[in-house]
Amino acid sequence: MLTFSHHLRRFGKRAPVGGPRGFTLIELLVVSSIIVIITMVLLLRQSQFDSSTILRSMGYSVALSVRQAQVYGTSVLGSANGGSVQYAPAYGLYFSNTTPNSYVLFADFNNNGAYDAASETVKVFSLSAGYTVSEACAKLSGGTNRCTGSDDTATAATTNSVTILFRRPNPDAVFATDIPSEQYTSAYVQIRSPNGTTRSVVVTSAGQISVQAPGTLP
Questions:
Q1: DSSP string of 33-80?
Q2: Quick check: 6 pLDDT over 70?
Q3: In a domain? residue 6
Q4: Rounded mean pLDDT of 145-154?
Q5: H/E run at residue 184
Q6: Cβ–Cβ contacts within 10 Å for residue 187, how many?
Q7: pTM of structure
Q8: How far is Cα 94 from Cα 85, in angstroms, rounded to an integer?
Q9: How far is CA 1 from CA 5, 43, 207, in A?
Q10: Based on the structure, what is the number of domains in the chain?
């Protein structure tokens, strides 16, 4: 077996007292492999931790956006509209399956319960790269969900958008989809990370807002 002590003798140097000592080539390869494996495991765990941290942050950011709309909807807040400041009777959040990387905080100037145009936009919230609103759902009293994406009870989108609205002076939430004739009891927004993990923000008709644990279905 070739050892480093043998290399020493080739170059005219004395081997350590007591005979040949040192690492063999196989031992070095084994140690190097172990170091590479440990490094890869640590990097993978760090990546998962970073993804989980960002997902949690995204979930709470959406929850804070809902709270912001609720505060705006129950207070006297003026918003720019057509070159002047107007006081909208309601504020809401608009989630669409055509823009899964962002959502809109809007002022409902005409009080029709819907996001009509860019003129009603107060702020556009963008998610971090790779993170999406995988679906936004409004729940009927019977338990059926109207979602912008597939959920645990449906295989395809059953609506193109979900709106969460707050009208002055009531802090309760009002929900709307593409089907105006339906009445909804709650809504949730699901955020998906690049590795497929999800977190959901749930809003009830009473105006309560909560962030679910990762992977938990509302």
A1: HHHHHHHHHHHHHHHHHHHHHHHHHHHHHHHHHHHHHHHHHHS--EEE
A2: no
A3: no
A4: 74
A5: strand 184-192
A6: 29
A7: 0.73
A8: 22
A9: 11, 35, 75
A10: 1
